[in-house]
Design a protein that fits this description.
There is one protein chain. The chain has a 5-stranded parallel beta sheet with strand order 3-2-1-4-5, sandwiched between helices. α6 crosses α7. The N and C termini lie far apart (38 Å). With 222 residues, it is of the alpha/beta class. The chain has one domain: HUPs (Rossmann fold, 3-Layer(aba) Sandwich), CATH 3.40.50.620.
């Protein structure tokens, strides 16, 4: 069964894709260049796609910088050492990003005859983004089945979110069970000129917390 997986090059999307592959789905990877300041992740997405042996890897450019509203697509400073228990949505939230990305994945899925979409969203160890929650995924899945020719003709799309209720440590453990090389991935929102992670943004902090709780070393820091 053919699937389209949103592949960012990060730890979560790599693990979600690997789980989907282990469950028998044939992966077609979609990576979006959206003007993100951490464009280093696209290089990692290419490495991850090769490691997964995907059927195809498509890269699309949809520049979200003119829309703005996020420190990931503007010159606004990325928050560092933020309290992850805070209830506010951080400036790294990109307005409607997962809605846009899943719409693109859905369009490609229709074209290639795929009815399964895979996305590495997580609602446990995350920064509080509204488009990472189960209710968003359910709503988009319902939309996919009424907004497409395939859906009108009787096909049913399914959005796979294998990580949505896992802690970061559990995600890492599952990936290691599958033999994943997390040294291929990139998580940092604000890397330095050399591409090294900053160690202080939400994504770096969550990654470090996950590896520590899993009891293994992060290969990027060895």
């Amino acid at each position: 069964m053919r699937a389209v997986v949103l592949l960012s090059g990060g730890l979560d999307s790599y693990t979600a894709a690997a789980i989907a592959k282990a469950e028998g789905l044939v992966l077609n990877a979609l990576t979006i260049h959206y003007g993100q300041r951490h464009a280093r992740e696209v290089q990692s997405a290419r490495q991850v796609a090769r490691a997964l042996g995907v059927e195809r890897h498509k890269e699309l450019t949809v520049d979200l910088r003119p829309i703005g509203g996020s420190s990931l697509t503007s010159d606004v400073d990325v928050p560092r050492d933020r309290d992850l228990e805070a209830v506010d949505i951080p400036s790294t939230y990109v307005p409607a990003r997962n809605t846009i990305f899943l719409s693109l994945a859905l369009a490609w899925a229709e074209v290639i005859g795929a009815r399964d979409l895979v996305v590495g969203v997580n609602a446990i160890d995350y920064s509080g983004y509204p488009d990472c929650r189960p209710e968003f995924v359910r709503a988009f899945e319902a939309l996919a089945n009424v907004a497409t020719r395939a859906g009108v003709e009787g096909a049913r799309f399914h959005i796979h979110t294998p990580l949505i209720q896992l802690s970061k440590a559990d995600i890492i453990r599952r990936g290691l069970e599958l033999g994943l090389d997390y040294g291929l991935t990139h998580s940092c929102y604000d890397p330095g000129p050399s591409g090294l992670p900053c160690g202080h943004c939400d994504s770096c902090v969550l990654r470090a917390k996950g590896f520590a709780a899993a009891g293994v070393a992060d290969p990027l820091l060895r």
